[in-house]
Amino acid sequence: MNAWVNRHLARNLARLGALITAVTVIGGSLGAYAARPLADRGWLAPVYIALVLAAVVCAFTTPLRRWSAVPPWAFLAPAACLLAWMPYAVQVAPNAAAATREIDQLTLAIFTACVALAGTRGAPTGALGVRAGWAGALALSCAFGLWEIAEKTYLFRQPLAPWTERRIPVGTFVNPNNLSTAMIAMLAGALALRAQTTNAIARYAIDALVAVGSIVIIFTQSRSGVGALIILMALEVWRRTTRHPDASPQAPRSPRRRYLRAGAGVGVAGLVMASFVIPSLARINPLSELWSASWNGHTASSDRGRLRLLQASLRYLQESGYLGSGAGSFEPLLKADPHSGFKATTNLHNAFFEILSQYGVVVAAVMVAALGLLIRVCLAGRLGRRAPRLDRDVRVEMAGYLLSFVAFACTASSSLTYQTWWTILASACAVWWAALPVRRPAPGAQETGGPPSVVDRPHVAGSGVGASAARPPVVDQALHRLQ
């Protein structure tokens, strides 16, 4: 009876955590479009408090041995370092109001991402919540994007923005660059969910959703978004065309299926070429317009302006003694700088340089170290020789999240206070965490850090994304007798 209760409790906790993670991911992608109605009704604070309390329950019921792993701290370490540096950043900030506003938004974004990470509990069920959340966010972003393309009506209208007069979607992210780069993470999560499911109908539905999402990204005419999409699709093609070494040999495919796929590929390639060659199609081809815009004077001037902004941020960092010029300080410093060359105040357009310039080299070094760990895992599959090698599908998924994280940081006007940006990094750490095998305590040893019975099923390398299996009790009993 006690064992049944323990298993039931563990299963419900895993499901609760996955639900919390999915809701957090979807809610963060909606941004103000979801926050404003809740705030108008006075529900925003209770919703956040409920999510935090549920995440605390998930965190304290996760065995301590799971928290001793590296993946969760690859996110928590830079987040904690940034939070710890905030008092100094507020003290030296030249504009108290701007500093307070940025600190409030940044703290909320980090804690929201921590809720998503804690909800996963380092378990395969939690990783499923991450993927389902991004797939749900992709479906909503596609719906908003297609509606904006068709109706030329925007959720958040900005009359001065050049894209409001064209069919360029912005969704809930206000800016096409933000939308396109955030959708890369949504596509990565949806593709990982497809790799995990075995239902043919669900796979076809996800493929259709990914295709629509790719079209929306192309219509944003964002160079970073389209470039990241090409890299992501190349990774997905590699994942699908290379058989896993532990997988069973597949049955030979029929020549008819090969011919159909080859014909479909030739047809798609022909349509793409025609959209550039035929004038009537080229006029409505967003890629053709993107290619032309990439070589005009406005784009070149914008690129030079971004470079000057980065140079100004490094100058402010040097003047601060490399400890940071303070929270929300870049815009006030740029406005007061007679040598900036900018007539109007603008954002830095690079979150990494924003962290470096405003919060100093210490916080930036911790962030770079965390990203270095994640990139190493994606490339090598593990951190050390004795560490278990990650499944190929998990590495591709992590690479998709990191691709989105970097693209979002380098193109958005200021992604530092975006909940989605921090949640993307937390998602990469969460799926890595869930893919690590569970090290069970020795027979008879007492589990610490939560109920002894709350033990998640281990991930089995080579069994696919999010695959897991529990060792049969008969095997445990046999091993115990041998000991």
Q: Please, could you describe this protein's structure?
A:
By secondary structure, this protein is mainly α. Helices cover 70% and strands 0% of the residues. It has 19 helices and no strands. It starts with a helix and ends with a helix.
Keywords for this entry:
single chain, 483 residues, mainly alpha, globular
Helix-strand string = HHHHHHHHHHHHHHHHHHH
Which class best fits the helix and strand makeup?
Answer: mainly alpha
Helical proportion, percent range? 55-70%
Using only CA atoms, what is the Rg? 24 Å
Principal-axis shape equals globular
Average pLDDT, rounded to a whole number, is: 80
**What is the total tally of β strands?**
0
Number of helices: 19
Largest sheet, in brief, is:
none
For the termini, the CA-CA separation is 27 Å
Oligomer: single chain
The proportion of strand residues reads under 5%
Which regions have little confidence, pLDDT < 50, spanning 5+ residues?
Answer: 246-251, 274-282, 442-483
